[in-house]
Write a structure and sequence with these properties.
There is one protein chain. The protein is α/β, with parallel strands linked by helices. It is 37% helix and 19% strand. Helix 1 packs parallel to helix 4, helix 6 runs parallel beside helix 7 and helix 10 runs parallel beside helix 11. It is globular. The two termini are 16 Å apart. It comes from Streptococcus jiangnanensis.
Length: 440
């Protein structure tokens, strides 16, 4: 179910731009009995790394025997995947029933406050509703955009985390690192512990100031916990982790040098959660198994091995830099064929400037059919002005997956918008090609 089949009404609430503010969420959830206040919530914000950090954390919490709800967006395969418990997406019938409840509620409510309610607000409220009804032990909620005024920020969490800070959605969140940090830090709550990832000093200074003002204990990357890269292997990255309560060597199940930072932050979150809830710390053996078994579609995901094709949702300059570092580490001697597109709110020029620095590479721009996508005319014009290739993404995939006559060892990378990757991944799954692609 890549789109909602029996609930087309929600499409009327879809917007290209978010309607920031929490008043609609507060009213909507009050009408449903405030399910968000009945949950133990771990609230995760940041520019990049949220999804991977949550994937690692979820896997470890499950290994402790907990029922773990996860709300994460956007989805890459099915609409239902945004809301899951222990890796099982909300059943379609249950989603449709809840949506029918919300449809009746919204159409029957005359409240002026609920005017302008968005699809993201509805699906966020629905996630809180579902997790409370299912009595999950803990719900991990991923911030959609920003933090301070994001729809998820109505919860009273037991723990918060901020992964990274980078320039993203500058038209909406601010055009400086400090301004964006202030928005992200809006999820910090009075007296609630905050775990931070690898964050530049100017952004961290803003976060620290706000955390101090709210007397929120801080667990900081590089100070309260450390990770150190050891080596890359075929199936992941090996790293050492050290904190006041744990030390050990672990391997990630996800590729990319940045994943050791995400795994390290997830470990810090796990240990802090156990301390805050009076649980015994997990053993290193349990953690090693969980981190190694972690999967997260669309993050340096190998979808074909012959020919070699990767999907990576690098959708802003910060994420592009992480992708390029991994390409240099793992594929320095490969010819690189990169297919890229993005949505309107992203820094197209800045990302292309970075992608054009990749040695021994060919960059192709493309367009995907979505109201949020950068206009096709803009992409074609940009390709022409920069002397880049332009091609439909379907033609690119068919050409690259069928042509194996390589003069040089080659890796193909499809990257950019996660909404785009959702379409590409669905296309590849349907294609069921015989070139090494397997469904998760």
């Amino acid at each position: 179910m890549n789109e909602i089949q029996n609930n087309q009404w929600i499409a009327h609430y879809r917007t290209d731009q978010p309607h920031f503010g929490l008043e609609r969420m507060v009213e909507l959830l009050a009408l449903r009995g405030n399910p968000h206040l009945k949950l133990k919530v771990i609230h995760i914000g940041g520019t990049n790394g949220k999804g991977s950090t949550i994937a690692f954390l979820k896997e470890m919490l499950e290994k402790l025997g907990l029922r773990v709800g996860v709300f994460s967006s956007p989805y890459l395969i099915h609409y239902t995947d945004q809301i899951s418990i222990n890796g099982e997406s909300i059943p379609e019938a249950r989603l449709e029933a809840l949506m029918a409840d919300y449809e009746s509620l919204l159409e029957g409510e005359k409240s002026a406050v609920l005017q302008g309610t968005t699809e993201f607000e509805i699906i966020t409220a629905l996630a809180y509703d579902y997790f409370a009804a299912e009595k999950v032990d803990v719900a991990i909620m991923e911030v959609g955009m920003g933090g301070l005024l994001d729809s998820t920020n109505v919860c009273q969490p037991v723990l918060t985390g901020i992964t990274t800070i980078g320039l993203d959605h500058v038209a909406l969140l601010g055009d400086t690192i400090e301004a964006i940090a202030e928005q992200k830090a809006g999820i910090i709550k009075q007296g609630i512990p905050l775990v931070t990832g690898r964050i530049a000093s100017e952004a961290l200074a803003v976060i620290d100031r706000i955390a101090e003002g709210k007397e929120a204990p801080r667990i900081r990357y590089g100070k309260d916990y450390q990770v150190s890269y050891q080596k890359s292997v075929v199936t992941g990255e090996i790293f050492d982790y050290t904190s006041s309560v744990r030390q050990g060597r672990f391997q990630t199940g996800l590729l990319g040098l940045h994943q050791i930072e995400n795994a390290g932050m997830a470990l810090a979150l796990l240990d802090t959660y156990c301390q805050e809830t009076g649980r015994e710390l997990a053993s290193n053996d349990l953690i090693a198994q969980a981190l190694k078994e972690t999967r997260w579609p669309g993050r340096l995901e190998v979808v074909s091995s012959d020919p070699l094709l990767l999907l990576d949702g690098a959708h802003n300059p910060h994420a592009i830099k992480a992708l390029l570092a991994t390409l240099q580490e793992r594929f320095a001697d490969y010819h690189k064929e990169i297919l890229f597109t993005c949505i309107k709110t992203k820094a197209l020029k800045d990302m292309l400037d970075l992608l054009e620095t990749v040695p021994d590479s060919q960059l192709t721009l493309t367009y995907f059919d979505d109201s949020r996508a950068t206009d096709e005319s803009v992409l074609k014009g940009t390709a022409k002005s920069r002397n880049l290739n332009y091609q439909s993404w379907q033609d690119f995939l068919e050409q690259k997956l069928t042509n194996k006559n390589e003069e040089k060892q080659t890796v193909r990378i499809v990257t950019g918008s996660l909404y785009f990757l959702s379409q590409v991944r669905a296309y590849l799954m349907e294609r069921k090609n015989e070139n090494g692609y397997t469904k998760d």
